[in-house]
Design goal:
The complex is a heterodimer of chains A (about 725) and B (about 160). Chain A is globular, with a radius of gyration of 30 Å. Chain A has 27 helices and 20 strands. Helix content of chain A is about 45%, strand content about 10%. The longest helix of chain A has about 35 residues. In chain A, helix 19 packs parallel to helix 22. In chain A, the strands form 4 sheets. In chain A, strands 4, 5, 6, 7, 8, 9, 12, 13, 14, 15 and 16 form an 11-stranded mixed β-sheet that branches. A 4-stranded antiparallel β-sheet of chain A has the order 18-17-19-20, with no helix packed on it. With about 725 residues, chain A is an alpha/beta fold. Helix content of chain B is about 15%, strand content about 25%. Chain B is built from 2 helices and 8 strands; from the N terminus they run E-E-E-H-E-H-E-E-E-E. The chains are: A alpha/beta (about 725), B alpha/beta (about 160). Chains A and B meet through helix 24 and helix 26 of A and strand 1 of B.
Amino acid sequence: MLNTVNNMYVIKRDGSKEEFNPQKIENAILKAFKANNYSLNDAELKQIKEFCKGDDTYEKMSIDLTVENIQNAVEKFLISNPKWFLVGKAYMFYREQHKQARLIKDKLNYIHKYSESSESATNLSNTDDNANSNKKNAATLEGELYKDTSRIIQRSQMKELLAEINSPYRDQYVKDLEHHILYQHDESSPILKPYCSAYTLYPLLVDGTSSVDGTRNHAPKHLGSFIGQFQNLVFLLSAQKKGAGAYGEFFNFFSYFCEKEWGEEYYKKADVIITNEHNLQHRTIGQTIDQYFQSVTHYINQPAGNRGYQSPFTNFNVFDSYYWHTMFDDFAFPDGTKPHWEAVSWLQKRYMKWLNEERTKTLLTFPVMTVCLLTDGKDVLDKEYKDFVTTQWAEGDSFFVYLSENADSISSCCRLRNEITENTFSSTTGLTGVQTGSCNVMTLNLNRIMQDFCREHNIIDKETGKAWSGRGLLIQIEFNDYLKSILDRVYDYQKAYKTGLYKMDKQGMFPQTKAGYISFDKLYCTIGVNGLNEAARFLGLTVSNNKDYMDFASWILGVIKDYNKQHSEKKFKFNLELVPAESLGVKNYNWDKSENYWVPEDENLYNSYIYDAHDDTSILDKIAMQGGQIAKSIDGGQASHLNLQDNLSKEQYTKLLEYAVQVGNSYITFNVPQTQCDGCGFIAKHPFDKCPQCGSEKVTQWTRIIGYLRPVKAWSEARQKEGSNRYFAKKETIC
Amino acid sequence: MLKYLYCKEVFREIPGEITLGLSISGCTIRCPACNQRELWEDKGTPLTQQCLEHLLKKHQGITCLLLLGGEHDIDALTELFMYAHKRVKTAWYCGLDALPKNHLGIIGHLDYLKLGHYDSDSGGLDSPTTNQHLYHIEHHGDGSYSQSDITHLLQKH
């Protein structure tokens, strides 16, 4: 070290560099002795001086020393001499105290920075930023403050669990995460929780919310108390999971209470006035129902204190008659009565029309609506519902349509599709087919995985940074094995996570399972994929509806899907999702770019679709590309968000819907940017730059960030940049 | 030979259809207010029947083929429409104010026909004062047809 002292630098804790000065170390050591009232003799002094300058002390370290490394060396030096033991111990204690102080100072600085910043809560978030919260406030700050610590706790827990299932990969887990080939979604909570769930509402009619919140309330007996308890339930359950909650039976149960209020044929009496001379305002049955719609809808859009001020992500399902009959014909409420299709159908349609109208008064994110339609592979079977959804689209309504040839799966989320394993109703537990979901999502970064593989096989062109062309077939078999070796590890990670959930469940940590709202064995372990388009481009393929690319995508996704199936067992079922990657798409891009992997220069994040959302791929191609074999492989979900600049006619939507059925696309929505005037509040279901009502040019556009409708202003910076590159098919011009 | 410059799936030009629109170059009408003058030149991809076959296959899912222009070779257009009409609906945006008497036969292969040159004062099809007309042609099976003016459908916004 002495030879190089003049060239050496110390990297300080704030990252700055300072020229190495052995005298400073000597002073610190002498101070430690002094603090312990230890008088050093000459021999000891000499030994200390030798150490500080010493060849042996630093030469094994890198040229740039960090403060931490120097302190480690000093610590080792002090405890090496038994006579100095107390000084060494005190030094260790001193270091620990300073570490604590630094941690607190860091947190305080973060609080100040967060509070003073003019950024939105989304942009201030360090971990898992998403646009489902608006403005920063004390609650969003509280949610952020310990996310880094939470991650460490969750990772330690995972290590314990991997040991518990005797996995050989217990040390590999964090390595895979830190190498960014794998991402564990929502690590920001230190407690293991399931990801998203589609619940049955049956238990609400048995015990009310008491089985979840511990209060001694009773099951609701009237429409008003049902709505009140349902609202509470949504918030209660949102604290017990990380992601979305779906309520596929909401309209069945709503209708049940309407029947209790106004009789089985209440829907035929919507215009009947039910107030009397004592009411200052008169109201019909229909208007009363609308008021409850309003109550539920506005309530679930409220921020939830227990979720870092995010709204509880809530989904409702609407079913066509075929779907509904398959799902609910065997169902009975606790009092033995059955839901009636005509009434439910009327109610769910009324709700969708009401919501579409309400969204011209105020833009609401939730519920995310999904209409499930049964098809015969050529067309939608229920013509009444085909007519209904296309009419709604033409009237500017924004919702998802889930298309399936069998009522063997539902889409309970903004894209997550889940197979229903058993659709048998049990009157004792109320178990129904709507219960499904995902217990955990871990996502593969396919672009990095592909490049790691090509690096290992030395098939990267040094000039372009891309893979050599023409090696496609040769690498397939070897890549299959490579990918499977990663998946083997991921299955263990997923099993460990779910083992943790099962364990906590046994310990009574999840009232929702005990009460019967969901059962954990119905939840899938979801393998997500991101970076698929980018991996293809790295291999020299063009991302469009061409055979080479589609074969590539089918191949990769097919390998994962088949391998998932092979490894699934009753308690651990795996499925595959093309994840929305709202913040992960940005992270993966940045991680890969900074670590010298090839990333496309014309993007700032990884795509969330099979197609490229940022080029002029036609609407028909987008529908086709996410259909067929691709839709079959992605058994855990995907969504085609079809961006349009303006609404189409009902006939055109009808033709696009038919085309989606024919090409096997299972989940679509049309996305026309909606605009709200910041001045007068006017809302239109199409884009405008200048308010047609008041002339203000201050307007806010709302569009689907990646599944749910949010104001563009609430998006993260990177997402806003990406949003401006999205291609919205234009209606007006050919050239 | 007809050539085309642009080819794109469009929604606005023909109400209710998912349309593949092809802009034919070599325009001889040359409206004074034209804002697509590159279409005056004789350039682009030759639009043969084979080429059309390929395009229709590639754009599977469209319900209507729209050719814009091509008035200088109505015979060639007629043949293309005859071919396409067996597969999808057909539409022609024609810049003439009336069809030439000796070419009325083309109507037999069309579902939609736009007539009228572009006049900037009157505006395009979406303008309430437009001089242009979009007709829906209904074929009765016995070779006869009737036409209805559907221009108003384009004037919603």
